[in-house]
Design a protein that fits this description.
The protein is an alpha+beta fold. The protein is built from 9 helices and 21 strands. 30% of the residues lie in helices and 28% in strands.
Length: 345
């Protein structure tokens, strides 16, 4: 089966207005390899349209600047590292690298944008996914080197690394950064009520004409949502799932979520959702945190505590749900509460 990308992890039909008494402006685009939506409530079209357009313009700039395998500032850095050269970087990129290094250490390197070469070996740095396994010899070379973003050294406006297997891929980080940028842009434009969706990474601002924004969490094996959740002002939600980008070979599913320790796709988890309460950089954390918790498997409660993430929903390989008690209190299950459910204190 060819790979497919089901990008909309969160079903935004749940966020649409129940009536048309108040304006709700919507703009869409295809950025970061996925569908992006900007919903602005409570403003006239003439005010909402330029604000949404400014957000989408910034998303496009970020996507072009930090694309992992097309010509970009990021791919230029990867080429320089592979050749053993220093590479000048912008202040923005240096800031992104420093924060990503902090999050990598905090997540015990289960989140690590430095595994770009491993992502490429598995064929996931491509719009079309090849249904093949990586060459064993190439995988062994990568595993022996075990490169990480923490191997990258910043010296002024230059970046370098002695680890030539290191290659950056911000695919599990940049959408969250973009959510935080959207928050800054919208506030500067006077927008107080909006919902931003980047392929299932969602951030809420204010309310939807006096009601909390409500979104659906995609069921990993069935069409439609598993549950819905209402978001408060400044909250963000992100999901990692084995149904987003994957290929099947000899009856096995190989997803794009790779365990840096083994170099292999994760197979013990179908989906993992985190809800991040309002705080600085909530968007980035919503994108980042779902990855190490997905990879951690049954050890996710310990790592979630370390990452200061209280709201977690995990669906394991058998379809059984594990939910933190804080998240359980926020969810409304579609079709009633599942029988195969464990609430984790």
């Amino acid at each position: 089966m060819r790979g497919r990308c089901l990008a909309l992890l969160l079903v935004l039909a749940w966020a649409l207005p129940a009536c048309s008494r108040a304006p709700l402006h919507q703009q869409e685009a295809f950025v970061f390899g996925t569908r992006v939506q900007v919903l602005i409530a409570g403003l006239a079209e003439a005010e909402a349209r330029p604000a949404a357009a400014a957000v989408l313009s910034e998303f496009d700039r970020l996507h072009r600047s930090y694309h992992a395998w097309r010509p970009s500032e990021l791919s230029a850095l990867n080429e320089a590292v592979a050749a053993g050269r220093r590479q000048p970087v912008t202040a923005e990129m240096a800031e992104l690298i420093i924060e990503a290094q902090r999050l990598t250490r905090l997540s015990e390197q289960l989140f690590d944008p430095g595994i770009g070469r491993l992502v490429s070996l598995w064929g996931f740095q491509s719009d079309e996914l090849p249904a093949r396994l990586p060459e064993a010899s190439a995988l062994a070379v990568w595993q022996a080197a075990r490169p990480s973003i923490v191997d990258l050294r910043l010296d002024g406006n230059y970046a370098s690394s002695r680890q030539q297997q290191l290659a950056l891929d911000f695919g599990g980080y940049l959408k969250g950064v973009a959510l935080d940028r959207a928050a800054s842009i919208l506030k500067a434009q006077g927008v107080q009520h909006a919902l931003i969706n980047i392929g299932g990474n969602v951030m809420a601002f204010g309310s939807k004409n006096g009601q909390r924004w409500r979104v659906g969490i995609q069921h990993p094996r069935q069409p439609g949502p598993l549950a819905t959740v209402e978001l408060d002002d400044g909250e963000a939600i992100g999901t990692s799932g084995d149904y987003q980008r994957y290929f099947e070979l000899d009856g096995r599913r190989y997803c794009h979520l790779l365990d840096p320790r083994s170099g292999q796709p994760v197979m013990h988890t179908q989906a993992l959702t985190v809800l991040i309460t309002s705080r600085p950089a909530a968007g980035a954390l919503s994108d980042v945190a779902s990855k190490p918790l997905f990879i951690a498997g049954s050890d996710w409660p310990r790592l979630a505590q370390k990452l200061q993430v209280e709201h977690v929903l995990r669906v394991d390989a058998t379809g059984r749900l594990q939910v933190s008690s804080a998240m359980q209190g926020r969810l409304v299950y579609v079709g009633g509460q599942p029988k195969a459910l464990d609430v984790i204190p």
